[in-house]
Write a structure and sequence with these properties.
This protein is mainly alpha-helical and 67 residues long. It is built from 2 helices and no strands.
């Protein structure tokens, strides 16, 4: 079983990578660092919240675990 702290740290690291990627995508798509960064921040905030909920739900599912 995974601790909540581990789930949160994993989510933060994953979302930091996504934030960097989305900032670049937003910059190339809009030509504006400010707009690209804002889009990336909104996407990251929503994604982080959903990922934490998703991880906690799966932490309670026993299907597919050994032992």
């Amino acid at each position: 079983m995974e601790t909540r702290r581990r789930s949160v740290v994993k989510a933060i690291v994953w979302n930091a990578m996504g934030l960097a990627t989305m900032t670049l995508v937003g910059l190339f798509a809009t030509g504006s660092a400010a707009v690209g960064g804002a889009l990336a921040l909104v996407n990251t905030a929503i994604g982080l919240a959903l990922y934490i909920v998703y991880e906690r739900i799966w932490a309670g599912v026993s299907w597919g675990r050994n032992g």
